[in-house]
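Give me structure tokens for this 223-residue protein.
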Amino acid sequence: MSDDIVLYDYWRSSASYRVRIALNMLELEHETVAVDLTRHEHREAPNLQRNKQGLVPTLAMDGRFLTQSLAIIEYLDEVYPAAGFLPHVPWERQRVRALSHAIAMDIHPVCNMSVVVHVMGLAADGEAARLEWMRTFIGGGLTAFEAMLAEYGTGLFCHGDRPGMADFCLVPQVYNARRWGVEIDHLSRIGAIVDRCMAIDAFIAAHPDNVKPPADAIPPRRP
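Here you go.
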């Protein structure tokens, strides 16, 4: 491995989206290598060699393969102390972790591709089941997140007045909510925070629409 930073990701992966934001916030130059989940490239040998779970993202950095998006973000926060992705005060760090985990560990896992594909296979109408599943779990999870934001500590962003790890989790989840037609317009705190985030260049550049590979760069699907 070289000293260059390489992010192995998929353009519409929520976990990858989080790490893209973090890298952009630090203005770290890095190469991006696509791992196409729709073609099951995450389950093939090259990806399994760097990510034993067969997932994305993986960040090649400092001579190591780093996995799990929140662990990567916390690593970046520790390596670059001025990053401020998590606060220094212990109870504030706990709150940011709790907000981040509410999305990354409660909403995201049940709405992950492998879970939803399994659910679709159990239903008579797979597409209808997928839509109902996404709307139920994303909607319920974000409603709870909105209530968490009513607690002391919320500022212009999820915690305080600068974006951090919780915001890196929230923005991709709201992207998914809108993708699946989840009604979230009534979640005013979430809406205001996401609007502020999406006025920041680091968030704009990480958006899936801005990293999606052109159609002519995608090889034909293997049989």
